[in-house]
Backbone:
């Protein structure tokens, strides 16, 4: 079958030719002697207008009685219609019904709320909004691979199941084969994990970073791009229990080099999506976020802001009257502060660097002041944090002291410490939340609407 995308792309050649298309009915209008079907086959955002005539189609009555959602196979002539609203149509010579639909098909031609569409996750990819979101998601994922591959990064598959807690936040989903009704216990009453599948507690990974570091110390520049899991009890528009993360890790690179790569990557992905998804972006710009195109254009062509945490806190403290949670040095920045900085102060993406060590993970490199670490979070308007990154602690003694200080066990990280024993070097990396990037690229404001099948607190259907 010919794809609708190919018909639009090669319309010059295909004008007057006969093609066969398989697709689903978006709308159908019966004017008794003739009728129109808008057909969508998923190959592109646009529908194909099919024109049918009672005089030429033996089964006209049967076709005209089909419901929205039916699957049809249409053979006909491509007719160029330069004066009409759509540049071409398909004049049907024959139409076969592959699969019927019913009048109560949930996706009738009207605007459905995103809340309603979340209840029919199996059908929502057939709507304009979700068709556009998931095509942009696919193009953005490919662009990320392209960005790193063109720069010689090696793609590493990091494990989904792990015994470590990279972020040290304890927000992990445990993986076990033990009978939860009848857990084996040690003498002191704690669970005896020696009888479990892995012989110790295991969990779904919160980040592939530590494994990526192992590979960066062999390949230099690597990245991982895969699902990550957080049992955070945050029921917000930007937290999911299962989300995808892009994590590059680069040897012989400091924090500035890290931010330069992050900034170049985001700009590259924006340009790729603008080049490959113009119809999808025009749709978002009209129906989801009026300023989207202008914003993406601006972000792709201007420098991101860079500010230290200490400077950011000085700026934010002046506006404490506007915040629910008052800012002072040492506090973790909340979404309201992140958004204020990037939306009111910078009006563009901004990296905040050098956070207090107390609010960041164990692996971040301690700065000379002994109080802050070489971290860089990238904040963007409308969302807040989309990237968390840092230069890693490459000094064995400093790392071990930090692990102990946090009450973690150096034995559990013997392999991670080994990297500092054998050819340690300065290195850095970051994690980009892929869904948050897709939200940024589309203007969609809820993470549930950029995940094909969202898993969030209280919801793991489908
Ligand atoms: O800031 P985070 O926790 O950093 C790390 O995991 C580092 N190990 C990354 C690294 O340096 N290799 O998470 C990174 C990003 C966040 O900035 C955010 O975009 C996204 O992952 N993220 C989430 N996205 C959706 N739902 C959640 N629950 C998320 N938690 C983090
Ligand atoms: Mg973070």
Residues:
């Amino acid at each position: 079958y010919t794809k609708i995308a190919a018909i639009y792309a090669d319309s010059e050649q295909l004008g007057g030719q006969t093609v066969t298309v398989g697709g689903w009915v978006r709308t159908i209008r019966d004017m008794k002697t003739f009728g129109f079907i808008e057909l969508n086959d998923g190959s592109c955002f646009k529908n194909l207008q099919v024109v049918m005539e009672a005089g030429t189609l033996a089964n006209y009555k049967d076709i005209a009685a089909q419901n929205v959602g039916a699957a049809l196979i249409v053979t006909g002539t491509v007719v160029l219609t330069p004066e009409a609203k759509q540049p071409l149509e398909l004049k049907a010579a024959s139409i076969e019904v592959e699969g019927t639909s019913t009048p109560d098909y949930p996706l009738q031609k009207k605007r459905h709320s995103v809340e309603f569409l979340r209840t029919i996750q199996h059908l929502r990819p057939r709507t304009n909004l979700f068709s556009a979101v998931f095509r942009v998601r696919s193009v953005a994922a490919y662009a990320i691979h392209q960005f790193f591959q063109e720069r010689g990064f090696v793609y590493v598959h990091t494990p989904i199941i792990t015994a470590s807690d990279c972020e040290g936040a304890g927000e992990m989903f445990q993986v076990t084969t033990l009978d939860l009704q009848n857990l084996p216990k040690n003498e002191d009453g704690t669970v005896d994990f020696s009888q479990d599948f892995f012989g110790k507690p295991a969990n779904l990974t919160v980040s592939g970073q530590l494994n990526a570091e192992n590979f960066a110390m062999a390949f230099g520049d690597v990245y991982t791009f895969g699902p990550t899991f957080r049992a955070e009890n945050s029921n917000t528009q930007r937290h999911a229990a299962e989300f995808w993360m892009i994590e590059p890790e680069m040897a012989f690179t400091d924090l500035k080099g890290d931010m330069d790569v992050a900034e170049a990557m985001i700009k590259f992905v924006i340009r790729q999506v603008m080049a490959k998804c113009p119809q999808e972006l025009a749709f978002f710009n009209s129906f989801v976020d009026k300023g989207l195109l202008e914003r993406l254009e601006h972000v792709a062509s201007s420098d991101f802001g860079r500010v230290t945490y200490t400077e950011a806190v000085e700026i934010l403290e002046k506006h404490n009257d506007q915040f629910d949670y008052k800012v002072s040095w040492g506090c973790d920045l909340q979404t309201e502060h992140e958004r204020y900085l990037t939306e009111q102060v910078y009006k563009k993406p901004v990296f905040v660097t050098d956070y207090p060590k107390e609010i960041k993970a164990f692996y971040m490199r301690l700065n000379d002041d002994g109080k802050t670490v070489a971290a860089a979070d990238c904040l963007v308007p409308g969302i807040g944090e989309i990237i968390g990154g840092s230069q890693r602690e490459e000094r064995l003694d400093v790392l071990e002291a930090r692990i102990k200080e946090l009450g973690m066990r150096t034995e559990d990280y013997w392999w991670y410490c080994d990297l500092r024993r054998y050819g340690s070097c300065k290195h850095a990396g970051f994690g980009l939340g892929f869904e948050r990037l897709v939200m940024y690229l589309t203007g969609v404001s809820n993470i549930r609407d950029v995940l094909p099948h969202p898993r969030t607190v209280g919801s793991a259907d489908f």
Q: What stands out?
A: Residues 166-167, 207, 209, 230, 232, 239-240, 243, 245, 247, 385-390, 429-431, 433, 435-436, 447 surround 4AD (ligand 1) (CB under 6 Å). The chain has a mean pLDDT of 96.
